[in-house]
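dude i think i finally got it to work??
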Amino acid sequence: MKEYLVELTTTVPDRTEPAEVDRRRAAESVRAKELATQGRLFRLWRPAGELRSVGVWRAEDETDLREKVLGSLPLWPWMTAVITLLESHPNDPGRTN
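look at this
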């Protein structure tokens, strides 16, 4: 599997009921745990004071990432994504090959 750096920004549409936002956020938490268990979500951070996330995700290719992985997130319809394919750096201290 390939690794991708993904920056996700969520914008809740105007006039969305707070209960709908809460429902989706709760479902998002459950789905993120499932994706982590599957090895698809490797790491996830939130920049301090911001409403976006930055993470390392794993997928076969970008189509797989967008359609099967990120597309399965309950908040995905409200998200924009910046996706960058990563490759190993020769000086990476965690490099295994």
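The domain at 2-86 is CATH 3.30.70.1060 (Alpha-Beta Plaits).
im so relieved honestly
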